[in-house]
Amino acid sequence: MGAMWQKVTRFTEDEIEALTNNYGTLIGKGGYGEVYKGILDDHYDLVAVKRYIRENLRKEFMEEVSIHSQMNHKNVVKFIGYCVGESTLTLVTEYVPKGNLDDILHNSDTAIPLDIRLGIAIGCAEALSYMHSMHLSIDSLICHGDIKPANILLDDNFTAKVSDFGLSRLLLGGITQYASKVIGSIDYMDPVLMHTGRLTPRNDVYSFGIVLLELVTRKRVKQGDMNLIGIFECAKGKGLRKLFDESIANKNTFKTLEEIVELAMACLRLDIKNGPEMNHVQKCLRVLKRDLKCRQEHASSQSILSTHHSWHTKDKQESAQLNKSGSFFRRNASNVKIISEFSNVRTFTKAELKEITDNYSDMLSGGMPAKFYKGRLEDNTVVAVRKFRDTASQEAFINGGIVLSQIAHKNNIIKLLGCCLEAETLAFIYEYADKGSLLDILGSQEYLPLDLRLRIAIKTAEALQYLHSPATGIIGHGSVSASTVLLHDNFVPKLTDFSGASKLIVDSGSNAGDSGINSVLLEKVLDSDPSRYKTVLMNLESDVYRFGGVLLSLISRENNICFDDLTVEFTKAYQKDNSGKAMFDKDITAEQDIAALEEMGRLALRCTILNADGMVMRPTMQEVAEELRRIRRCCKLRTSETTPHVTETTATAAAPLEPRLPNLMRHLFGYRRISITDPIRTG
Questions:
Q1: What is the third-level CATH fold of 326-431?
Q2: What are the binding positions for ATP in this chain (predicted)?
Q3: Among 192, 387, 429, 664, which residue has the fewest nearby CB atoms (within 10 Å)?
């Protein structure tokens, strides 16, 4: 996954107190300070709030913010924001429900099978490999500096999330640095760092070796006079096997456990030249997990680590295989870009896809041009695999890849985790949305309060606003519907299905200003062949129109009527009664909700205007998102009875930063006469 600066929120102290309910729920405590559970009010997202004791070290704190905010990886805890108050330094990150590995291993009796433990190790190794590769900023890499079980968090699927970057350092150019003062957890610290202050990625490799030992023994590296490292250096045969956690040690796992220890001891070597790098370690762990599964049926006498010195050769072979499998793309020079973009995500082989989907045993949905399957990666991450049915789908596959490559980071757009480029197995691997689609939820019996429906609508509108912005190169999705809005845990919406219809005007950042589409880009669009942009601009119109249909589905809970017919029914209701009440879902028609529902209905009908003369009144997605946020604020005020009743009139939205793209489309394709007196609106 490519590196980028995430959007960083700076919170005030009052906001931190509000989202933690005045620091009401303590979930962790350490030498750095305390961790509290919180809720982001606008999103209902659970967060972890770290309040640090070290308020006199603001420079170091801001360095931590700088480093953590650059990372975007599924195995790194997501950074959300920070607060620099008068007396406190506070970090806000995603909430990871199962807590940390140290507590799971040493302070609980939670059963953890060996394959799950290997998955935890793989996730941590992948995060470190990502940090150690020189791509997070210009010629830089990151040394975490404090890898230990307490800094490895686990989600509900036991997927590892590396956390706590307070001791991390950015190594410019990958050049070794020396610390004037060595700080860290002594039990897990690389002796080279401890005695010389030398900061290199090898420090993390050493610490990770200790984590591996604790994973297979369920014992701390140091307890009293016992030191796991020294014991494993001397142990052999039955003596070695007695060290393993008995709950995972049996005749089918002994070989794998011994090879994990062998890999751990390789990580603990003090000879830097002969020690493995993290990218090699994570590859070897994936092989060990595959081997563990195979050994249930076939006995293997050869050590997986016997090929340790051929790792570099294997890397070259894998690269050659990738070139071969992706060769059919190279026949067309225009597809060279997608090959380079795919280098930012993991490339899976056909065999790996069969493995992670258990031979495609759990199909989520199917149709043309692709089928979806549930799968699980080696690091325990649950995923959705979209497998295209034939090579005739190549164009849709390439298009989807290009579009997704422009979307650097957005919470409410499905995340691409990998792809398969083999000609007969074109596939995308996405994060898994466990609640299914909005269409599924609307057709279920699950209770959906109005505020939750508003949140789904707002976040989906914001995702479309983001797609329509210069940040992405102006992407028209083209297939917005209740079935293409997936819902993650806690009902977080994720916009998906970018293959086929989705199109973009220009590469992100190309002649586009940071705050909007500037006049240079507009002139380029007008002076170029309009047909080149026809699909994009039609999709932008379509996105607004189809989102109106999604909004009507949310307030009516109708999932069996196509949105065209639903629009007609709502229009008739408003024409007859000047109200949409007859169409509203009866579960959300409490008196305090009616005003908000009426406003949402009218906004949806503005989005779906079809009359040529009236289409100029269609809002942009930015205006839609702003209006929905205003409706939600007013709804909350009405519910709390802190203000008088708000009327149905629609507030004037702020001037959009982007031009009114539907109006631009009409200029391009002759719906309105172009003249000096009829200029393009740009805000």
A1: Phosphorylase Kinase; domain 1 (3.30.200)
A2: 50
A3: 192
Percentage of the chain beyond pLDDT 70 is: 72
Rounded CA-CA distance 625/459 in Å is 8
Catalytic site positions: 146
pTM of the model: 0.81
Enumerate the CATH 1.10.510.10 domain ranges in the chain, comma separated: 101-306, 438-668
CATH 1.10.510.10 for the 438-668 domain, yes or no: yes
Residue 539: is it exposed, middle or buried by C-beta count within 10 angstroms (0-12/13-18/19+)?
buried
User: 563-598: string of b/e by CB count within 10 Å (b at 16+)?
Assistant: beebbeebbebbeeeebbeebbbeebeeeebbbbbb
Range list for CATH 3.30.200.20 in the chain? 9-94, 326-431
Nearest to 191 by CA among 275, 303, 302, 253: 275
Contact 342, 419 (CB under 8 A): yes
Tokens at residue 482, please? 């209740």
Task: Determine the pLDDT at residue 303.
Answer: 56
Give the bridge partners for 51, in sequence order: 34, 90
Count of H-run helices and E-run strands, the chain? 22, 24
- The tokens describing 254, both together, are 């002994």
pLDDT digits (tens, 9 = 90+) for 48-97: 999 987 666 788 888 889 899 888 899 999 999 999 988 789 999 999 99
Distance CA 208, CA 488 (A): 31
What confidence score (pLDDT) does residue 682 get?
Answer: 32
Q: What is the DSSP string of 577-644?
A: HSS-GGGS-GGG--HHHHHHHHHHHHHHHHHT---TTTGGGPPPHHHHHHHHHHHHHHHHHHHHT-SP
* Residue where the block lists tokens 């009236």: 614
Quick one: tokens of 93? 């990150």
Q: Are 281 and 267 in contact (CB under 8 A)?
A: yes
Looking at the DSSP assignment, which residues form a beta bridge with residue 46?
A: 39
Question: 190-217, pLDDT tens digit by residue?
Answer: 998 888 878 889 999 999 999 999 999 9
350 vs 423: CA distance, rounded Å: 10
- In this structure, whether the domain defined by 9-94 belongs to CATH 3.30.200.20 is answered with yes
Mean pLDDT (the chain) is: 79
Instruction: Please give the distance of CA 318 from its chain centroid, rounded to a whole number.
Output: 26
CB atoms within 10 A of CB 655: 10
Question: For the residues 366-390, what does the mean pLDDT come to?
Answer: 86
Cβ(414)–Cβ(477) below 8 Å = no
